[in-house]
Amino acid sequence: MDQPSKESKRGTIRSFFNSYNIKSRKSTSAIPHNTTDSLSNETMDISSTSINDEQQEQISTYSSSLSPRLLSPSSNCFSPLDKPEENISSALFFSSMVLSPSNKRRQEQTSLSLPKSPRLSSPSSRVSQLSSPSSSADQQEKASSLLSSDVISDQIESSSFESSASSNKPTLNPSDLSSSFNEPPTQPKLATYPLNKDKRCFRIQWLSQYSWHSNSGINLNNRNQSDAYARGFNSWKNALSRNQGFPKHELSKSHKQAVVNFEEYIVRKQSSSSVLQVLDKSRKEVIEQNRTKLMKIVSLLHICGRQMIAIRGHSESEASSNRGNFIELLKWSSATDPIALSILNDSAKNSTYLSPSTQNNLVTLIASDIRQQIAQKISGCVFTLMVDESRDISGNQQLSVVVRVIDVEVTANNHQNCQSLFKEYFVGFVRLVEFDAQSLTNEIVKFLSSINIDINSCVAMCFDGASVLSGVHSGVQSLLRKQHIPRAIYVHCYAHKLNLVICDVTKAIPYLAEFYSIINKTYVYFHKSSVTNEMFKKVQQQLKIDRSDLSTNTTLKNWAETRWDSRWISIQSIIDNYQVLLQSLEELEEEGTDRSIDARGLLFALKEPLFIVTIFIIHNLFGKIKILSDQLKSESLDFGKAHILINSVIKQINDLRSEDEFDKLFEQIGEFCFKHDISFNIPIRHRRAKTVSTRFKDCIVMSTVGQREEISDKSEFQDRIFIHNLEILRGIASLSPDNTKFLEVEELKYLCNIFQCDILLLVNEIKVLKPMLEHSKSQNIVELYFEIVQFKQAFPTFTSLIVGALTIPVSSTTTERTFSKMKYIKTAARNSMSDGRLSDLSLIAIERDFHADYQKIIDVFATQHKNSRILLK
After folding, report:
1. Polar residues compositional bias: what residue ranges (predicted)?
2. pLDDT of residue 564
3. What is the pLDDT of residues 645-699, one digit of tens each?
């Protein structure tokens, strides 16, 4: 039989493709070798098959005339050659490559071709359509009988074809090619290869040199790819040309993509990954990328909040040179961080998540996460409530809410720093609109409930002396006990009490008002004018005073009523810079300007011996009070230690009245005056004698008409400090091992009533505890707690009693610290900040030891924004 022409061969292939509605050369995408397994199982629905002698001869002749087909392994398409030649198809191994009659008459006789289906738009859609057989039932029966016959089997073997073992319906393949895409690509090595028109042929060594070569007789065409899919390549003259042949194709983008796709398929096949799993993996990768970007945004917002810096600027537009700290930090980090660079450059304009509203939402979520952590630490524990109020820069009244709790997780093994035992957590600011006690009470209860803190667990309250808070009959502390927590006790802040004592002292002695005025005017004189300030620095340089020396105060300090430490510090600065002040004032007095008048008056006041005596006495007195003040502001100070410390300071103050202490003080004053050439003779101040009214000249008083108890100056300080909470002091003192009434039940009854402890159980536990603690080395209640907490299962009542006693605070100075932070956060330049944002940013800045859970924050954000434009979960 004559060898078929090129047109007949192409017609044969075309008629075979047409049975699947796959048009030759320009109609379809090539079917890859690594998808033929699926196709052999799902798409090959041959209605009927018959092979006669004429067909067998045609198959043998056609297969012997095939030229090598050149292609790249791919998971979804062939890799085209750049300049294909002639009519050699570039296709992958595919089962059932021939057996298609070349003329219409044989199609009718054999009924091989399948009914035509609509044109497929993609390989995936083609697979889905071909997988649904459209032939009739009788055709299927005929095909099954023919394919199962021995005649067909013998003919397949004799013609060097075999059925695909991996397919449900057998198809025919050349024996030297892969029967399915489960097998690796093969390169059949023929003894001789056909010559082209240039009398050149394919060389067998090219198969090893270019491993991606393969041979096939199928003309699977890819509509959108190069013509090499349909025509192939046989210009062997230019096969090794860098601009036309194999080297150029090997460097082409389509070839590289095909290799990548094929390798990805092999990996998926080895891991038994389905398409759904691959899609799910891709979706997870997208989600992970989106979450990584959002985590970067959240972390930057968190660091801005912790450092109390503004997040947004005046303008965040791209044309602005300063887009705010948040955007500028993101731009700065993009130089080294690819995630930040991707956020700025790769994000869609409508889903950058850099907008002000998104920033506010994320800041709120960060603060909420920190509040939840605080609520979890407080849950199941007793706590103390501390509140105070102050005005922000906008004039809004803000109520600071702080809770004090004992960290029960701290044990004897890790209590090297006892401060870790006492925790005072700031939970937020509450904007006040109404300022009466009932409104404040309602706001406090509502706020604590909103952050999941049970008000019933509150055992104590600590406020300052404001009547609206501390009022006995209608103050906040009274209303809270009447309406919510009847057993809670109220503690007047001891730091505020001490400040009240100092204020009373300043008013009791007439000269002290003049003394404080001199100190304030001296500070103002040298700080309000640049001329006087420069003169002060100039004299310091002349006297060779090192301004960098931290051991001395080289600058004057102001006397402030609300800054408790400022009194002693301002006096200390006057003493340290006394010589500088005198010399500066003398030079300014000689200028003859308006400043000279004030300089002359201050110079006279500072040289007065009464001023020098007063400054040394007050400096000595306030120095001892400063020690107490610093300790009262400490979170780790418990009631027992405070009692001991206050008694010690009172004793030292009383000792100042002794002759020995006064002699030492007088000696210091004399040395100071001699050093600065000041006469120590205190001049007598002449005062006009008080005259008696003429109405009383003829009156004779035989006896007094009333009586008044004399106020003892010695007991006034002690009464102001200890007049309240005496029962609490006695109860806590009895828990201290160094007290003479240690573990006396009568002294502990008041505390048992507050903390709702069973007195009978406590008595039994104390009977067992006393012998155990006979050789104890504990010296205070904190050390006793660390010793007992190891046996809290055996002594639960006593442990609860100690925890409750330690929970009672001494002062509410933590609320004062929150106002200092508030002034840093809400400044004049940021005065439009909302109340909620102020509370959130203050919480982030103050409770900086808490680490926000960014993954949890993103989960909550994704839940709240279900219509988000990017996948987050």
Report:
1. 26-62, 142-156, 168-184
2. 63
3. 888 888 888 888 888 888 888 888 888 888 888 877 666 666 666 676 776 666 6
CA 806 to each of CA 420, 422, 466, 735: distance values in angstroms, whole numbers, following the listed order: 13, 8, 25, 10
From 800, 816, 645, select the one nearest 729 (Cα to Cα).
645
> How many residues appear in the chain?
873
Strands 458-463 and 383-391: parallel
Half-sphere exposure at residue 794, Cβ-oriented, CA atoms within 13 angstroms? 11
Q: Which of 617, 625, 629 is nearest to 656 (CA)?
A: 617
Least Cα distance to 762 among 804, 723, 795 occurs for: 795
The residues that bridge with 432 in the sheet, in sequence order, are 397
Quick one: pLDDT at residue 717?
61
Which of 786, 807, 828 represents a domain boundary (last residue)?
A: 807
Tokens of 608: 């007065």
pLDDT < 50 positions in the chain: 1-51, 55-56, 58-175, 217-227, 229-230, 550, 708, 710-711
Residue 871 and residue 873: Cα distance in Å, rounded? 6
* Opening angle at CA 256, ends 254 and 261, nearest 5: 90
CB 70 within 8 A of CB 239: no
The CA-based angle 511-516-518, given to 5 degrees, is 95
* Cα separation, 466 vs 507, whole angstroms: 20
Q: Is residue 716 part of a domain?
A: no
- Among 127, 108, 114, smallest CA distance to 47 is for 114
Residues 632 and 741 in one domain: no
Separation CA 747–CA 728 (nearest Å): 9
In a domain, 25, yes or no: yes
The helix/strand/coil state of 242 is coil
Contacts of 451 by beta carbon, 8 Å cutoff, 6+ apart: 371, 374, 375, 427, 428
Which of 268, 294, 327 is at the close of a domain? 268
Distance CA 370, CA 776 (A): 39
Q: How far is CA 852 from CA 14, 520, 847, in A?
A: 66, 46, 11
What's the CA gap between 595 and 694, in Å, rounded?
A: 47
Segment 480-534, tens digit of pLDDT: 999 999 888 898 888 888 877 777 776 777 888 888 889 989 999 998 888 898 9
Burial class from Cβ neighbours inside 10 Å (0-12, 13-18, 19+) for residue 146 reads middle
Give residues with Cβ within 8 angstroms of 534, minimum separation 6: none
Domain that holds residue 791: 725-807
Our count of domains for the chain comes to 3
Identify the pLDDT of residue 329. Answer: 92
Sheet architecture: strand order including 383-391 = 422-432, 397-406, 383-391, 458-463, 489-492
List Cβ neighbours of 520 (8 Å cut-off, separation of 6 or more): 558, 559
Contact of 505 with 516, CB cutoff 8 Å: no
On the 0-12 / 13-18 / 19+ scale of CB atoms within 10 A, 16 is buried
